[in-house]
Amino acid sequence: MAQSPDELFEVDSDVPDLDGTVLLHHFDGFMDAGSAGSTLVEHLLEVHEHRVIARFDVDDLIDYRARRPPMTFDTDHWQDYAAPELAVHLVHDAAGTPFLLLTGPEPDRRWEAVVAAVRTLVERWGVRLTVGGHGIPMAVPHTRELSVISHATRPELVAEKAPFSRVQVPGNLSALLELRLGEAGHDALGFAAYVPHYLAQTTYPTAAVGLLEAVTAATGLVLGTDALRETAKRTDAEITRQVAESAEVMQVVEALEQQYDAYAESTQNLLIAEGEPVPSADELGAEFERFLAEQPRD
User: Fold this and answer.
1) pTM across the whole model
2) How many other CB atoms are found less than 10 A from the CB of residue 236?
3) 247-264 vs 226-244: helix axis angle to the nearest 10?
4) What is the Cα–Cα distance from 219 to 12, expressed in whole angstroms?
5) Which residues pair with 133 in a beta bridge?
6) Of residues 199, 207, 202, the one with CA closest to residue 40
7) 206-236, pLDDT tens digit by residue?
8) What is the pLDDT of residue 269?
């Protein structure tokens, strides 16, 4: 018999009063161009004090054969197993204000039950706002200011609307969570950072910075940015260097700039639709292909 939503998680016994706090969330597995959302999560857990206060029973949620967790074999024995974890972290910002961060693999099963479980925690802890974020591939050049669009359960929460009115995309847990929380009368907000499509498969810290700034503006949290900005600065400099070394790549970027500027003055949709071909490595140039291949995920 399947577990009820309340049985999907365990909560620590020493959770403090969290009334009025913010819940941030990001699930690995859905679209996250430039690793924008996952990079933001890693940054927050690296620079801010935190501890896990709730864990979900992933055995009932994850298809292990579809995405096998890594195991380490050492000489003559199995040494380690990287068990997947879907957990809520209690984090404190630079001013000591507590907030929550729900992160881990996007469940393969029982989405509605997981959403109901998260809603239970939202109501138990008195969460005032739930916020998610990720990156989406766009026909934009890296030389233009990064854009972050938003969507929410109430129009008053939306800061920057999408340039399109209606679009159908594959479902994902973050979107379903926002939808269901809104139906239950809770405030929920989501951000999507525009990532140049030719950088979608690498780590693009500038997109994570954009998400961080959007989250800070929406929540009032005081979140450290220095380390992430420095990483983004180095990555941007490397991209600029690689582009400058190839006239072919420079032409591609200039064409994207012209297209972007023209679209910025119109109401045309910049989103790359499902099934639409992304420029190939040949189109981007041999050196740009090499640049993408050399970029580390971290």
Assistant:
1) 0.86
2) 15
3) 120
4) 25
5) 191
6) 207
7) 999 999 999 999 999 999 999 999 999 999 9
8) 54
